[in-house]
TrEMBL record:
The keyword Iron does not apply. SUPFAM superfamilies: ATPase domain of HSP90 chaperone/DNA topoisomerase II/histidine kinase, HAMP domain-like, Homodimeric domain of signal transducing histidine kinase. Its main location: membrane. The keyword NAD does not apply. This is histidine kinase. GO terms for molecular function: ATP binding; phosphorelay sensor kinase activity. Pfam families: HAMP, HATPase_c, HisKA. Its EC number is 2.7.13.3. It comes from Oceanobacillus sojae. It is found in: Cell membrane. It comes from the Bacteria. Keywords: ATP-binding, Cell membrane, Kinase, Membrane, Nucleotide-binding, Phosphoprotein, Transferase, Transmembrane, Transmembrane helix, Two-component regulatory system. It catalyses: ATP + protein L-histidine = ADP + protein N-phospho-L-histidine.
Amino acid sequence: MKQSIVKELIWMCIITACIPLLIAFMMAQSDIIFIIILITTLPFFLFSFWMITYVRKRMIAPLSILAEEAQKISQGNLSHRISYKKEDEFGRFISAFDQMRNTLHLQEQQQQSFEKERKHFIDSISHDLKTPIASISAYIEALQDGMAEGPEEEQLYLQVIQKKVHVLNDLSNQLSLSYETPDTIHLETQSINCYEWAVDWLENILVECQTMGIHAQLENQLNSKDASNFCIDVYQLDRALQNILNNAYRYAKEFLSVKTSLDAASFKIYMANDGARLHNTQIHRIFERFYTEELHNADGHLGLGLYITDTLVQAMDGKITAAVKDGRIYFEITFPIVSI
């Protein structure tokens, strides 16, 4: 129940005003002044003691709590919760003060997380840029010094340089989207037939797998008569799905499956492989920015790929989920069907 210090003080004032009237009435009714003074002095003494106690508990005590907590906050301690049980004016003020403290504490935690993330980002970029640049520099110096024994070896050096340049280009593309959100990313969307898109996409995957010697189970459950469309940015969707495929190409051992299907309300893409490198308890982190199970490497893997995939899919009103079971990782991407 809400209480009011103001109301209680008003009642105290009323009682205080009534006591002199009571004394005057008793004096008018009796000639025994000593007894009257004795009788009236005790209530005054008790009332004064009650008044002092009330002010100390209901005013001075909460102010002392506020002063103590404000001192802790000024020293940087924002984690301590301010406890005050009464729901009077001071209680509501302390509650608002504690909400402010909690907001500041959450902001401090977010800032600490951001600083940790920023440090990890700088460390990753520093290493992952340095490695291909050093490799490019070494091969260029070798070509300049004539270390290649013939045209074939020179061509081999140039191929390595080209590969490292592609790594740098991939890093640049990832960084361009590293701090984008589904609301800020620019898309050029268009309505695309689900069946036609699925056929083209699966054909491209088949060519990639054949080139790399990977056996993949590819299945298109859509019918050529399906006229359903979904609204996407073709380039960005291909980019998002390629991030998942690249991980599958790198980690899959014997199993790689890609499937498309359609129901009354959505177009779905299923991707799975047996190269899971994390436990199901960590799956909730898989779409976090910079999250990776790998240490620094020379191939430019910053832990941004799946974060970018999640961002792009959400920007196209889609949804992506992931799960790990029996050493396999499963992805499900869903897009709503749109009317033509």
